[in-house]
């Protein structure tokens, strides 16, 4: 399998195989790298402070803070932009991403994350954008769909021919009135970058977002009538928990309801 530098809107090329990345791509990579370094610095500072404390309660509290920061750093690493374009195991990547998000953002809110997966391989840049969409929609549900009673977010991946579909639902509550916020604008832009489309429905019994995109990246493959049903016998229902994924063993794109008038 040969990895090639990404040559889409984040990079330009010169003659031969040499790739010259754009300023925007370099800045985004540098920003992501610096955020990762900041996570490391803060975790180190908290750990040192805990070791110097004479209070057992303080040590325990600071250890909890360091652990949570480690979990958020894991989500950040999973969502880093890929540096090359190659085909990877999208199912394994999504599973590991969901496990990271469950651990960092959902466990303490008593929100369950269920993944229905199928075998799927995508280009690394496609997989990264799909991961960004999934992460943003999970964040929206976490912020806007649930109170302290918790709930369930379900992600169902399906494949039909050359089309892939990702359906994300939650069982929170909504008035059905929506004020589109930055989150949905980001999601819609990422869907367009995948040459796909995404539709949202918000109601009193939950929210549903359905993303459809061509696996081969060809926009002409997508039709408005394309829909993959929930009864595909090949799907596997996975309850996401700390035991359901081993992030170090899966491919990574880098190559290495709530209230009325809510904003999504």
Automatic annotation (TrEMBL):
Reactions catalysed, semicolon-separated, are: ATP + protein L-histidine = ADP + protein N-phospho-L-histidine
Query: What positions does the domain Signal transduction histidine kinase subgroup 2 dimerisation and phosphoacceptor occupy?
Result: 30-103
Q: Which domain of life is it from?
A: Bacteria
- One Pfam annotation reads HisKA_2
Enumerate the GO terms in the molecular function aspect: ATP binding; protein histidine kinase activity
Tell me which EC number(s) this protein carries. Answer: 2.7.13.3
Q: Which Gene3D superfamilies match?
A: Histidine kinase-like ATPase, C-terminal domain
Report the enzyme's class at the first EC level. transferase
Keyword set, alphabetical order:
ATP-binding, Kinase, Nucleotide-binding, Phosphoprotein, Transferase
Protein's UniProt keywords contain Transcription regulation = no
Write down the SUPFAM superfamilies for this protein, in alphabetical order.
ATPase domain of HSP90 chaperone/DNA topoisomerase II/histidine kinase (SSF55874)
> Does ATP-binding count among this protein's keywords?
yes
Tell me the protein's name.
Answer: histidine kinase
